[in-house]
Amino acid sequence: MPATEPPVAEPVVSPRERAAEMFAWQSRACAALGSGLHAVLLARAADDVRAGGPCADAVAGYEDAPGPDAIALRFVGGVHALVLAGRAPALAGYYPSVGGVFEPDRPEAVEACWQAFRAAVAAELPWVRDWMTRPPQTNEVGRSNLLVTGLLWAARSTPLPIRLFELGSSAGLNLRPEQFRYLADGFSWGPADSPVRLAGAWRGDPPAWLAGAGTAQPELTVAERRGCDLTPIDPLSEGGALALRAYVWADQDARFTRLDGALRLAAATPVRVEAIGAAEFLAGVELRPGTLTVVWHSIMRQYVPAEEWARVDAELTRLAAESTPEAPFVYIAFEPERVGERFPFRLSVRQGQDERVVLAEANPHGIPATAV
């Protein structure tokens, strides 16, 4: 027999090093999405994890969590919650979400911010470790930019009252998309007096069919809105509102403004978010004549185990097969997917058993979108 090369052992990465790499990856993602504050703090925290500092203590036991558990987002969300709750006054001076100022171009200011951050983690370790047990639920309001695009696409051929069902709803804020105002060059849609204004909704020109939607399409009527989540958040509770704010990056004022407006609408239009899995939730959904039944989700599939998603897919297939002109069904998703060497976040729509149509791409926060 010919000799063969001995197998090359994969390098062993310690749990602490793995956690540090996850922090560093999230740091780069924050930088790409315009959060200089969180990019800097997570990069420093990665080094602190490697060195066995208080950040390592905060994530101890979570280092081997799978990527979808997003331990870096849990960590910075917990620290942000400290600031929002008034428990880290020294750090608050650098957090724009509470009136602080972060100066990335001043090395001494960056160092002072990091030292205040590290000290807050050390002083409030039980608090931060409690937040490590919570899934990160941004309930990003900007993703309604994609949802309403899918709804308007479907409404062109099926102008019926809508029954909207959302998988992975968190606090259900995106179950009120027709109550938001969407704005871009050559496009505006939604109530002019809405407390949620999604400016800059499109990069470049919106699709030609959408640019005329405000006048060519009737207003969307949502007759029913329900969601599901394994750990739903009550947006009307003090703790729920704190959690939603904590997961917004502290130096992104526009996202905070949109969230505050969405919380006002949540108080005016309550919705039900059931504490059950997506497959069980869908098993209870039936089509209804005279209405358009829509199932929608955004950036949640990665959190669902493969076995559970197989059951979800079976329910979606059932609903598509039952779709008729009198009781139509539409499936809308905004999720990452491979396109060549890229992994863009793409909006897709499938009407009944028709072919899936990709309408747009956007960053994970939903604004701006780009027509495909």
Contiguous low-pLDDT stretches (5 residues minimum) are: 1-10
Main β-sheet, spatial strand arrangement: 6-5-1-7-8-9-10-11
Quickly give the structural class: alpha/beta
Overall pLDDT: 92
Instruction: State the order of secondary-structure elements, H for helix, E for strand.
Output: HHHHHHHHEEEEHHEHHEHEHEEEE
Biggest sheet overview? 8 strands, mixed
Which secondary structure elements does this structure contain, and how are they paired or packed?
Blueprint lengths: L14 H18 L3 H15 L3 H6 L11 H14 L4 H4 L14 H17 L1 H7 L12 H14 L4 E6 L13 E4 L2 E3 L7 E2 L9 H4 L1 H4 L5 E7 L9 H9 L6 H16 L3 E3 L3 H6 L8 E7 L7 H17 L6 E8 L8 E7 L5 E6 L6 E3 L1
Parallel strand pairs: 1-5, 1-7, 2-4, 5-6, 7-8
Antiparallel strand pairs: 2-3, 8-9, 9-10, 10-11
Task: Name some characteristics of this structure.
372 residues, alpha/beta, eight-stranded mixed beta sheet, three-stranded mixed beta sheet, 11 strands, globular
Describe, in plain words, how this protein is organized in 3D.
- The protein is of the alpha/beta class.
- It contains 14 helices and 11 strands.
- It has helices spanning 15-32, 36-50, 54-59, 71-84, 89-92, 107-123, 125-131, 144-157, 208-211, 213-216, 238-246, 253-268, 278-283, 306-322; strands at residues 162-167, 181-184, 187-189, 197-198, 222-228, 272-274, 292-298, 329-336, 345-351, 357-362, 369-371.
- An 8-stranded mixed beta sheet has the order 6-5-1-7-8-9-10-11, sandwiched between helices. It has a 3-stranded mixed beta sheet with strand order 3-2-4, with no helix packed on it.
- A hairpin with an 8-residue loop joins strand 8 and strand 9 (345-351).
- Helix 2 (36-50) packs across helix 6, helix 4 crosses helix 7 (125-131) and helix 4 packs across helix 11.
- The longest helix is centred in the N-terminal third of the chain and has 18 residues, at 15-32.
- It starts with 14 loop residues before the first helix and ends with a strand.
- Residues 1-10 have low confidence and may be disordered.
